[in-house]
Design goal:
There is one protein chain. The protein has helices spanning about 1-5, 15-20, 25-50, 80-100; strands spanning about 65, 75. It is mainly alpha-helical. Strands 1-2 form a two-stranded antiparallel sheet. The chain is elongated.
Length: about 110
């Protein structure tokens, strides 16, 4: 107890595995980030569709649109396309995290040092 107080810890962990094996917070964070990314991706897809020639519901500002080298009058929704594509990377991180966790026993593992 003296060491706990001197080091400024809240309390003593009775078992070492309890102190090192709680990793659910990482999976919850990755899952939440993937969910947010999917929602942003869906919103970006809606805006891309609504700004297309066929729909014409939304007009993108020049700050968010990129010109075309073949057709200078055309506005490509480049930033929205990048946002839509980045969701796949976040989903990949979530999948990798779950894949890494499924095969690990409790306690300390060097798999997380990568």
């Amino acid at each position: 107890m003296l060491t706990t107080r001197l080091l400024g810890f809240k309390n003593v962990q009775p078992h070492a595995l309890d102190a090192t094996s709680s990793r659910d917070y990482m999976l919850q964070t990755l899952t939440s980030a993937a969910s947010v990314a999917v929602n942003f991706s869906r919103l970006a897809e809606e805006l891309i569709m609504w700004s297309s020639y066929e729909y014409g519901t939304v007009v993108l500002d020049d700050g968010f649109a990129m010109g075309s080298s073949m057709m200078p009058q055309k506005k490509n929704p480049g930033s929205l396309e990048l946002l839509r594509g980045r969701a796949n990377r976040v989903i990949g991180y979530m999948t990798a995290g779950h894949g890494l966790m499924k095969g690990l026993p409790s306690g300390y593992n060097r798999d997380f040092h990568e």
